[in-house]
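Module 6 notes. Inverse folding takes a fixed backbone as the condition and produces residue identities as the prediction. Think of it as a translation problem where the source language is geometry and the target language is the twenty amino acids. Below is one complete input and output pair. Work through it position by position during the lab.
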């Protein structure tokens, strides 16, 4: 057990964390007990998401490392903790190493002095964005990128999938289906394709016309939206 308590996702320097410790901290540790509903684990995987933690983060479940350390204080990261879950009580441990004064890591405008000064502010150490768990099917949609093409009235789609299957997409505008696309993968990874839209509705200032978009991969469904818009820089004649 650890001696103190903290209210995550507030960093220990913040009063709302319940710690309010403003001195330099080169490493902070977190530990908590978690449990899982056995019924929800059947045919599912459990992802542990971190919105952000500063700076180098290591994670263990029941004393076993769940993956390589994440380096960086601003980007989100995720671990698949399914293989490390045991029946009953589980212990999650997180360590964040943060040497703000080191020239080997970026620190932005964090103060190198004890106090905030000029445009430098009090440091942020450890977890400072939301941490949550997500149950997903064995085959699931990890991420995607959309590229609208106004000239050709199409939508470019690139998706990262975990697990095999067929990714089906359907686009609609104000309830009317205006496009569909199917992408197959035998092992997961990245897939890409182009969806042809039967209707073009521009996203304009004062008229934010948005299309609804639904992704389906086996038992996983993701709902999103997109706008048909582009911008360019031209020489002023």
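Target side of the pair, the amino acids:
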């Amino acid at each position: 057990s650890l001696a103190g308590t903290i209210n995550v996702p507030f960093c220990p320097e913040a009063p709302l964390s319940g710690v309010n410790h403003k001195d330099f901290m080169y490493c902070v540790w977190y530990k908590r007990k978690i449990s899982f509903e056995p019924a929800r684990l059947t045919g599912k995987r459990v992802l542990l998401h971190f919105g952000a933690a500063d700076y180098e983060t290591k994670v263990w479940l029941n004393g076993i490392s769940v993956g390589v350390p994440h380096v960086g204080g601003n980007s989100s990261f995720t671990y698949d903790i399914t293989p490390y879950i045991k029946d009953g009580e589980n212990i999650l441990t997180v360590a964040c190493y943060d040497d703000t004064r080191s020239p080997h890591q970026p620190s932005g405008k964090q103060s190198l002095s004890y106090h905030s000064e000029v445009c430098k502010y009090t440091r942020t150490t450890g977890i400072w964005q939301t941490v949550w768990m997500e149950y997903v099917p064995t085959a699931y949609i990890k991420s995607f990128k959309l590229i609208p093409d106004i000239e050709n009235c199409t939508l470019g789609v690139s998706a990262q999938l975990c697990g095999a299957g067929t990714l089906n997409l359907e686009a609609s505008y104000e309830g009317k289906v205006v496009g569909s696309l199917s992408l197959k993968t035998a092992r997961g990874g990245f897939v890409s394709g182009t969806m042809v839209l039967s209707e073009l509705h521009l996203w304009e200032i004062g008229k934010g016309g948005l299309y609804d978009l639904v992704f389906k991969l086996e038992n996983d469904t993701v709902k999103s939206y997109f706008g048909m818009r582009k911008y360019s820089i031209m020489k002023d004649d």
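Reference fact for the lab report: The longest helix spans residues 38-41.
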